[in-house]
């Protein structure tokens, strides 16, 4: 397993199904979460406090309680992010794919967006977020949605069809090394490695 795969595996703490209840976070669990993420104990405790505030009273003692996506998106740190719904869907382990998050999903999210996460981790999750149809490549449809998220979709900001076509062609000229009309993960990571601002901009801090 390569280093990036190990780091991604490290992040998927939801797979451990530790069954924590939101109102209680013991010392052992806190240490384990710290080991499995790029977060400090203080950051985990703050995340726990913010997550618990989003739960209904009768949910606070339910193991692996889920917060619906619409409530997660009330967090100021996510509310103005143009990719907020994609972020929830990528980090949600919900079987019904509704974007809801358990506390461990929430920690995975914050860990990937933390200052301490590596370039490999950040680029891996950025690629998944931008891959709107979840097919493992960024094609013209994904790139168009990506551009629309960044520019906004009002009449004032939306690109014309010709501008969009030109921009997507430019992106593919720069990124599509094997010239198959799509951008795969390694091509995306190659582009990101030449973008010094990416790591500092791919950030969500509570």
Give a verbal description of the structure.
By secondary structure, the protein is an all-alpha fold. 54% of the residues lie in helices and 0% in strands. The protein contains 12 helices and no strands. Helix 6 (84-91) packs across helix 8 (119-130) and helix 8 packs across helix 11 (185-193). The protein is globular, with a radius of gyration of 18 Å.
Helix-strand blueprint:
Elements: H1 3-11, H2 27-36, H3 41-54, H4 69-72, H5 76-79, H6 84-91, H7 103-112, H8 119-130, H9 140-151, H10 161-175, H11 185-193, H12 198-201
Helix pairs in contact: 3-7, 6-8, 8-11
Summarize the structure.
This protein is mostly helical and 206 residues long. It is 54% helix and 0% strand.
Number of extended strands: 0
Counting DSSP H or I runs of 4 or more residues, the number of helices is 12
By secondary-structure content and strand pairing, the structural class works out as mainly alpha
Please give the radius of gyration in angstroms: 18 Å
Distance between the termini: 32 Å
Overall average pLDDT: 88
Along the chain, the helix and strand elements come as HHHHHHHHHHHH
Q: How would the global form be characterised?
A: globular
Low-confidence stretches: 14-22
Share of β-strand residues: under 5%
